[in-house]
């Protein structure tokens, strides 16, 4: 399983355990392993028969379908189901999952009165002490799950028939492969999709890609009429067909002409804990804790400096002061996709209005290096599929350094830093700190090298 996805699952587990405090004193029937859910089913039944009123990870089987539930509570002779999500809102996928759980549990437990989805309350702001009752927000889904019962029954019947037939169903690839999540069988169904396929045209929407593929237009080379397509799609298609880069040199040169030395290549890492850890913050509020700054002087010498806040106290004031100090002498500040940096700086202005002038001065000097790529002033067929920093760096610079790093994405950086708040092993804390710093430094180094790559292209005769 990818590290990013595993981290998300771990967060969900941690939030689910915390939510048990809403109904304290329950019995935990979690299985000893994923393959032993039968144990949980038996323990659940035994506890119900003995009169238990709160059960964590209760499990039931009906019609050969297993359903596990975060919290099962008995009040006034009736049972109430609570499924916990580490989310701020209820999605259609959550409702459908809950419908399946309700179907199984209701048939095993006729006295099930209601089914609640427990999400995180985005209005709750941490004060001196965490209030679990205020942090979580239960919402009854009874009307929805009851209405979905016929659909659930039909889908179970369909699934059991597929299993009984023994053959993998033939389902053509399409938009459903990505909804509500990218399918776990993606690698199986998509392995026959050819290279340089229409799904790699990042300037084209998925519906159009699927339509072409179903019509037999599977590769970019098979696309004939491009007259009705946007100019960006046309650029990608022609570049791939001809096997050469597309370059609007004058636009890129004009972009570079507005830069001033020393140039700072800047990147921020932040974490957004599902459960707020600092007074005055809310769930998933973005907290910056690290930045890297590579500096290119007029003499073309490249150096690096950074700021890192050890987990513990709220790092935002230290962070904003370090930003002001280290960026004050930069002529231009280059970032890759400026939305994050502008968003962080805007939030810091609200928190520390006394630094408004200095922060606004930083914002005025920020230049987004992703623009030449996003606007297709420069496109190389090797980068087909994504104009992300990592893909451009890997394909244009032929460097796979990101892939070799333990922390190799912003998501992993977020979860790794968040985990340090519970870590007690000093060696692990120091190791993770260095991994986070090295990842952030790699982001700014990659940005600097992409800048130099493009500049060299402009200087070519």
Give a verbal description of the structure:
- This protein is α/β, with parallel strands linked by helices.
- It folds into three domains: 3-155, Restriction Endonuclease (3-Layer(aba) Sandwich), CATH 3.40.91; 175-244, no CATH class; 252-459, Nucleotidyltransferase, domain 5.
- Helix content is 44%, strand content 17%.
- The chain contains 18 helices and 13 strands.
- The protein has helices at 3-19, 37-49, 92-108, 132-135, 142-147, 149-165, 186-189, 206-214, 231-242, 249-257, 316-327, 339-351, 356-364, 371-374, 389-396, 401-404, 410-419, 426-459; strands at 27-28, 54-62, 65-75, 78-84, 112-120, 136-140, 246-247, 263-271, 287-296, 302-308, 332-335, 366-368, 378-379.
- It has a six-stranded mixed β-sheet with strand order 1-2-3-4-5-6. A five-stranded mixed β-sheet has the order 10-9-8-11-12, with helices on both faces. The chain has a two-stranded antiparallel sheet with strand order 7-13.
- Helix 1 (3-19) runs parallel beside helix 17 (410-419).
- The radius of gyration is 27 Å and the shape is globular.
